[in-house]
Amino acid sequence: MQTMEIREEGFLDRSEPDADGSNDYWYEGTYITFTFDDGRSLRARRYRDTPGEAALFFNEVGPQEDDDETRLAVEWLRQAGVSTARVLEGMTGYRPIWQQRRPPSVARKHPRPPTLL
Description:
Layout: E1 4-14, E2 26-36, E3 41-47, E4 53-57, H1 68-79, E5 84-88, E6 94-99, H2 104-109
Parallel strand pairs: 4-5
Antiparallel strand pairs: 1-2, 2-3, 3-4, 5-6
């Protein structure tokens, strides 16, 4: 079984302030890099204002969506409080690859099944 090293790094991406000191955009959060025994890596991003969501980014030489390494990373994110993990799908936007199950009382009101890996 693969093991992974986890590195978290904060980021701040913002526009230059305008004349009154306001920013057009301001994104703040954490990049999480998962590096596995075989040298491959996977990166995730969490924004500070939506800590329950994470976006995973795949590359051609890293783990892919259905790999055990991706499942390990998603499990780590789940334990860190993430309830939805998404991937960027071309120009169509993000789609969930894992979503926490709803409690049974909520599930009865909303019978649509959750998206899982």
